[in-house]
């Protein structure tokens, strides 16, 4: 039986699980690759602006040069304000139409610089990258055509006979920028895809780790509950019943009987203390094997008979060698199951006779606990004792079957599998 986690996955939890692109995309921050490309484009534009300003102020300096520098300063201011606002949004591979709010004014200011001189044609190469990278593909192509046309017309306007290079230069620059940006965008999409996948995997890993911790906590809580129920709780029940019997013996003036019962209660209290210390120290209890296992089961049967004032018998058909070969986990489960099931009989069955049978048959150990008590309807009763016994059997790969009916007693059979040696 698998332990039931204390936290059930709800629909709201499923909404937070990985594999939902809409949620991941809404929280997807710019990848380092995308941010670096955006800064590289801005750096190229600023570098070309400084180069153009240097050419405009190169000796012999003139008033036209200072006008060009002033227009470039205005261009830089408009471009920088818009670029700064754009930096607040994630850098995607498809661009945004909102960048037209600063790209279009920047292109217009740059176009006016050709009225003063042709040197600002160098800035066209930077604007080619800026518009292609900042705008969607269609907008980028239209803006690229506009920048190229302004560069060609503005530069050739200052030549009486335009050379082929004056026309081809801006066009070749635009084509180079288009090829680079298309390639970079494809690469950026792949990087974004891998980044999203990595984050989904990280989210899935965290979810699995959280669920594993919850399941481990639930399993450990169930284990502790079973240990307490099968050891300390049963010992306390025995002590109470022994003391009640001693009190009844005193009422009957049977002092020797009362003293014997108190001694048994004291011994049970000592066992309880030892079990508690072992539990606190997380130490494995000593699990007997062979004849020791038979003796331990007999002690549990005798204790149940004394406490319950009923006839409890043990019939163990397995010999000492078969008991010696039982795995440690199986021996421990048998001891705890007998202790727990007999406690249930003592506390609830009101039986006059109980038979405990243990046998090793083939590849399994079979434990039967049968009483002639008042019985019950198994489908209507799910007490912790029976659930704990079923979980105890399942913990070593076994099963527990209950047959009972009102006024017809109860028969419980536990089948625990045994490891088989491989044939040579």
UniProtKB/TrEMBL annotation:
GO terms for molecular function: phosphorelay sensor kinase activity; protein dimerization activity. Coiled coil: none annotated. GO terms for cellular component: membrane. The chain crosses the membrane at residues 39-58, 65-82, 102-125, 132-155, 167-187. Pfam families: HATPase_c (PF02518), HisKA_3 (PF07730). Keywords: Kinase, Membrane, Transferase, Transmembrane, Transmembrane helix, Two-component regulatory system. SUPFAM superfamilies: ATPase domain of HSP90 chaperone/DNA topoisomerase II/histidine kinase (SSF55874). Residues 223-420 form the Histidine kinase domain. It comes from the Bacteria. Residues 1-21 are annotated as: Disordered. InterPro entries: HATPase_C_sf, HATPase_dom, His_kinase_dom, Sensor_HK_TwoCompSys, Sig_transdc_His_kin_sub3_dim/P, Sig_transdc_His_kinase_ChrS. PANTHER family: NITRATE/NITRITE SENSOR PROTEIN NARX-RELATED, SIGNAL TRANSDUCTION HISTIDINE-PROTEIN KINASE_PHOSPHATASE UHPB. This is Histidine kinase domain-containing protein.
């Amino acid at each position: 039986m698998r332990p039931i986690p204390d936290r059930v996955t709800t629909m709201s939890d499923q909404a937070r699980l990985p594999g939902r692109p809409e949620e991941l995309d809404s929280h997807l921050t710019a990848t380092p690759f995308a941010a670096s490309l955006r800064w590289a484009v801005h750096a190229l534009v600023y570098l070309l602006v400084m180069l153009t300003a240097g050419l405009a102020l190169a000796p012999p300096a003139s008033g036209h040069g200072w006008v060009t520098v002033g227009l470039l300063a205005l261009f830089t201011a408009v471009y920088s304000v818009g670029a700064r606002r754009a930096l607040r949004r994630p850098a995607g591979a498809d661009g945004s139409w909102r960048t037209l709010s600063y790209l279009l004014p920047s292109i217009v200011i740059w176009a006016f610089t050709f009225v003063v001189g042709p040197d600002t044609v160098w800035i066209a190469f930077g604007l080619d990258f800026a518009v292609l990278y900042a705008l969607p593909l269609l907008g980028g192509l239209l803006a690229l055509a506009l920048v190229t046309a302004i560069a060609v017309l503005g530069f050739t306007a200052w030549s009486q006979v335009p050379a082929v290079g004056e026309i081809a230069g801006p066009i070749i620059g635009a084509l180079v920028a288009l090829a680079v940006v298309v390639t970079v965008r494809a690469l950026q999409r792949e990087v974004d895809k891998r980044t999203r996948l990595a984050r989904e995997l990280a989210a899935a890993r965290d979810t699995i780790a959280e669920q594993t911790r919850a399941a481990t906590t639930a399993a450990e809580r169930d284990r502790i509950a079973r240990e307490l129920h099968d050891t300390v709780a049963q010992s306390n029940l025995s002590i109470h019943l022994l003391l009640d019997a001693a009190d009844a013996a005193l009422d009957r003036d049977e002092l020797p009987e009362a003293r014997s019962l108190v001694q048994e209660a004291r011994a049970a209290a000592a066992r309880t203390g030892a079990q508690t210390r072992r539990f606190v120290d997380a130490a494995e209890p000593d699990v007997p094997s062979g004849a020791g296992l038979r003796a331990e089961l007999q002690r549990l049967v005798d204790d149940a008979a004394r406490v319950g004032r009923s006839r409890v018998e043990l019939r163990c058909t397995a010999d000492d060698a078969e008991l010696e070969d039982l795995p440690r986990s199986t021996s421990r489960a048998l001891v705890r199951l007998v202790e727990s099931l007999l406690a249930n009989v003592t506390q609830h069955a009101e039986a006059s006779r109980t038979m405990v049978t243990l046998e090793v048959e083939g590849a399994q150990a079979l434990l039967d606990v049968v009483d002639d008590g008042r019985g019950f309807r198994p489908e209507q009763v799910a007490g912790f004792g029976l659930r704990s016994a079923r979980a105890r059997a399942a913990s070593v790969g076994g099963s527990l079957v209950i047959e009972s009916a009102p006024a017809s007693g109860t028969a419980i059979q536990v089948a625990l599998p045994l490891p088989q040696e491989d044939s040579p």
